[in-house]
Amino acid sequence: MKIQKVLISKDDIQSRIKFLGQQISKEYTDKNPILIGILKGSFIFLADLVRVISTPLVIDFIEASSYEEKESSGNIRILKDLDINIENRDVIVVEDIIDTGNTLNHIIDILLYRQPNSLKICSLLVKIKKHTLNHPIDYFGFEIEDHFVVGYGMDYKGMYRNLDYVTLV
Ligand code: IMP
Ligand code: MG
Question: What's this model's pTM, rounded to 2 decimal places?
Answer without folding.
Answer: 0.93
